[in-house]
Amino acid sequence: MNRLFRLQWKEKEYVLDLGDSSSRLFGPEKKWESLLTHYSWTQEEDGSYSLPDGSVALLRSGKLFVHTKGKTFQFAIKGREASDAQAASLEIKSPMPGKIIKVEVKSGDSVKKGQTLAVVEAMKMEHALKAGADAKVQEVLTQPGDIVSQDQLLIKLGE
Length: 159
What we know:
By secondary structure, this protein is mainly beta. It has 1 helix and 17 strands. A hairpin with a 5-residue loop joins β6 and β7. The N and C termini lie far apart (39 Å).
């Protein structure tokens, strides 16, 4: 069974096909020919996908995180998963275990879509957590120096 996802990274859209026997990433650069093909993605018990080289793909809260060769890429999922992403945009969660480096907002602040709210360090890389919509900060549940787990709620936003 194939799982097709429309992804957005920066200003471009891509299609990711996570299939049972192969996985491919299609992009507009080559007229939607496959940019990347792997025949050995393995679905793990936690729902992530892995490769023998240590690369990991993880779908969480309407986003796809791909960690490969020491770098993490975050893609926004478009299409049928967008409603899930919209609901999740008011809950800022840690995409992976790590340490809070910065919190750039406080309760009551108004934030704009794309504004950095906090920074998490994981695997010696900093990950900026950004607002998914224009909103008001209802509650900040963490502070710099805190160790957080994957999917831990860090900031609550409201309208």
